[in-house]
Amino acid sequence: MSFLRSAFIALSGNSLLRRFVERSVPGRRMSARFVAGFRIEDAMTAAHALHQQGFSVTLDSLGENVSSVGQARQAAQIYHWLLDAIAPSSLNANVSLKLTQMGMDLDPALALENVSGLVRHAAAARNFVRVDMEGAAYTQPTIDVVRNLHAAPENRGHVGIVIQAYLRRSAGDIDALVKDGIRIRLCKGAYKEPPSLAFPDKKDVDANYVALMKMLLKSGIFHGIATHDPAMIAATKEFARAERIDPSTFEFQMLYGIRRDLQRSLVEEGYGVRVYVPFGDEWYPYFMRRLAERPANVLFLARNLLRR
Ligand SMILES: Cc1cc2nc3c(=O)[nH]c(=O)nc-3n(C[C@H](O)[C@H](O)[C@H](O)COP(=O)(O)OP(=O)(O)OC[C@H]3O[C@@H](n4cnc5c(N)ncnc54)[C@H](O)[C@@H]3O)c2cc1C
Question: How many whole angstroms from 227 Cα to the centroid of ligand 1?
Fold first, then answer.
């Protein structure tokens, strides 16, 4: 299993395969399992359908590691359009973006400028920008950018971050971020990291996830518990009950198309559930990470390839 996970994560960075698959008709058809479509309109349609079923959403215009200033500015522009599309709607919707999509690899100042403009826009619209967490090379730069932006009083509460439970450093990061009052999404982590930085065994990742979840729920700040793992969800519910923490002070978060049964049952039980809705042409690396998480998804992929 671990071999397959590594193989899919390695393939997620293969630009030749990516160019071929992203444009191919079977590829685009397969992506529909985890991706809401290719245009802003598609994402908004999916968001409205989820809203009808009692979910809130975070919209993700797919893209990462852009290689030109123009691409970075265009990526930021799409998020400005998204914030404009959300503002007049009845949706409980915010946006999720990646620093490398905003130009971090080209020039950290460019990425900061792009994200800063979006956080200003979100603050003016009383909305929220979540900066996703990428591979370990970006952990500290992402924390620095988010803390820097959040320190401006007008941005307070309008920008948040993601922390990965597989990283050994995460308890210390949560401690500092919570002191600043920053909203955190807690996830397990989707990249391939060395054992020096990340727990290699699932049982250690899970134990750390539960410990970090407790830190978040006790913090008095509204955080996102992002997982499809029934054991993590049960531990969260149980801790909230035992500590008399009101479930309205946190939310569960899950990915579009994954464990929809669990998403629905949590809403039926009265928990807040935010669905992460990715859309856009650049779906390949995101898609490959979803295969890495659950290689059985390849069977689904194969069925789609055979279907005419
Ligand atoms: C809202 C949200 C935002 C995220 N943002 C980030 C981020 O910014 N940075 C980052 O590194 N990672 C992010 N992730 C991904 C995360 O790190 C994990 O890789 C992913 O959620 C799988 O972990 P899990 O907690 O679901 O538990 P796992 O132990 O991996 O899975 C538990 C169960 O969930 C189901 N499941 C999990 N993944 C899949 C899948 N791909 N297909 C089908 N079923 C599946 C299976 O039933 C599995 O048994 C995010 C996840 C979510 C839900």
Answer: 5
Nearest residue by C-alpha to atom 28 in ligand 1: 229
Cβ-count burial 2-37 (b if 16+ within 10 Å, e if not)? eeebeebbebbeeeeebeebbeeeebbebbeebbbb
In the residue annotation, 60 being an active-site residue is answered as no
Inter-CA distances, 138 with 123, 135, 238, Å? 25, 6, 33
- Residues lining ligand 1, Cβ inside 6 A: 132-133, 162, 164, 185, 187-191, 226-229, 253-255, 258-259, 276, 290, 293-294, 297
Rounded to the nearest angstrom, the distance between the alpha carbon of 156 and the centre of ligand 1 is 28
pLDDT (tens place) for every residue of the chain, 308 residues total: 578 888 888 888 888 888 888 888 888 888 888 999 999 999 999 999 999 999 999 999 999 999 999 999 999 999 999 999 999 999 999 999 999 999 999 999 999 999 999 999 999 999 999 999 999 999 999 999 999 999 999 999 999 999 999 999 999 999 999 999 999 999 999 999 999 999 999 999 999 999 999 999 999 999 999 999 999 999 999 999 999 999 999 999 999 999 999 999 999 999 999 999 999 988 888 988 998 888 888 776 776 666 54
Q: How far apart are CA 220 and CA 230, in angstroms?
A: 24
Matching residue, tokens 């935010």: 274
CA distance 102 to 292: 25
Å from CA of 293 to ligand 1 middle: 7
- Domains of the chain as residue ranges with CATH: 35-282 (3.20.20.220)
- 107 noted as active-site residue: no
Please name the amino acid found at residue 190: A
Rounded-to-integer distance, Cα 111 and Cα 102, Å: 5
Per annotation, catalytic residue among 132, 206, 274, 290: 132
Q: Are 173 and 185 a contacting pair, CB within 8 Å?
A: no
